[in-house]
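Dear Dr. V.,

Thank you for agreeing to look over these. As mentioned in my earlier message, I'm a first-year student in the group and I'm still getting used to reading structure tokens, so any feedback on how I've presented them would be very welcome. I ran two proteins. I've put each sequence directly above its structure. The first is here:
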Amino acid sequence: MADESTLNGLRAALAAYAEPYAGQTLGDAQAVRDVSATAGGYTARIVLGFPVGGYQSELTEALGRHLAAAGIQVPLTVELQSDIKAHAVQRNLKPLEQIKNVVAVASGKGGVGKSTVAVNLALAWAAQGARVGILDADIYGPSQPLMLGLEGQRPASPDGKHLRPLMSHGVGAMSIGFLVDAEQPMVWRGPMVTQALTQLLTETHWGNLDYLVVDMPPGTGDIQLTLAQRVPVAGAVIVTTPQDIALADARKGLKMFEKVSVPVLGIVENMSIHVCSNCGHAEHIFGSGGGARMAEQYGVKLLGELPLDAHIREEADSGRPTVVAAPDSARAKAYFEMARRTAAALAARARDRSSVFPKIVIEES
């Protein structure tokens, strides 16, 4: 029979561990669900609110060091599980059925690599064990068909009313690029664009998803504002580069989401550092630290600093983005960590409670 004092000490020590992605202790996150004695030592069941695929060994090693520092030397087996909840959206909107969380990826200006970040975010979550879809909301310049290797393909509509998303690397995808010719320009006014995107979102049979990533159009104009007001978003990610002009526009994107009460999960600094493929020299071509300063200024998280690497462009153009093409590379690791921080930031936000309240119907007698 296990020593109760040892079990209590182990529980307390595990609860005190500061989990780096969640930014809080396992106790505060209510993640330590069960600690028990086994024939070979002890087992701890830990449940986190974000995808945990690939995190088992890293967390086990970190907990071993943490326990050793607390003077606890016992064999510990970690049973790591994920429990992804639906989170609150704008007050005037309801969450979509079957989709727990819609996450918008946006930028204040074009050319900062927003679509590359969005596709790698979606694929990283899928690789980590989540059910994921991606909606390409960039009507004028849809790039997800190319990045996902789906150019020229058309979605099916089994019932004549709903589209079935195309699948790529375990992620369901929908884009206006699947429905029009690749070289056909979209000469549409704002209302037509927002109507088309609303239909793509609501008339696609996504199935049960933990996350739907929306690759937003660049900018902060009428289209972006209307989309942010119409789409029930649980959180937004702002993509920028370190240079001042990109940061100035990224601030406008952040303010836009604040205006429509969409929580900004954090900032991703893309093209943060370039490492020469020939000599290995590292250089901050677009400046350094801009994303960190902006995150601190607005009280949001810096979710990742992603490299400027020719391989990332080549992999996206080939239809096999980095986290799929080279999952063990250093550049892919930056995406996987960014994805985990983003999901953890969402997990820390208020949950959607609409399902626990009774529906009140008033009928005239």
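The second protein is here, in the same arrangement:
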Amino acid sequence: MSLFIQIHAENPQHRLIYQAVQMIRKGAVIIYPTDSGYALGCHLGDKDALERIRRIRQVSDRHNFTLACRDLSEIATYAKVDNSDYRLLKATTPGPYTFILQATKEVPKRLQHPKKKTIGLRVPANPIAHALLEELDEPLMTTTLILPGESNPEYDPYEIRQALEGQVELIIDGGYGGMEASTVVDLTDHVPVIIREGLGDISPFTG
């Protein structure tokens, strides 16, 4: 049975954030709100939890996962960021963007693109997501919660509970989420390339 907890969307209760983070550290798969739709998350080093997320999403081992980071300095630990990339990231984070960058050695190989050695990173502008990352004190392995056969992320925590009861340890109800996924921007060649247009203004990447 999944634990279902309601966390205040603007002022997350610390005791509930702490409880969620303790579950993550013990191997839980969680569902939590971001500034786009809801997302699945687990501990960065937890291979079993990662495989469970793949089964829920029904994606292959070539699916690109993302590291949700709390700030730019954390991104720089896990990705190779040059000066032009940094300026662009600084101007657009936190926000509903996922950036594809060259991974550093800090990123487990199973999370990297098998050929390109890249990783997706984002800094979500959602108070609950930010509080989780602050308490966790490291990135959260994450992927947008798009159920098999669907094209848009899930946004209703009660419908999520109905669909995935028992398949995850924790569902955080942070209110209705966005109905669009994040915009994905490839920065590996230092010229922004929009891979997926979703939530967020794309003009910073097209000028």
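From my reading of the second output: Strands lie at 3-6, 30-33, 38-43, 66-68, 97-102, 118-122, 140-144, 170-173, 183-186, 193-196. The chain has six helices and ten strands. Does that match how you would interpret it?

Kind regards,
E.
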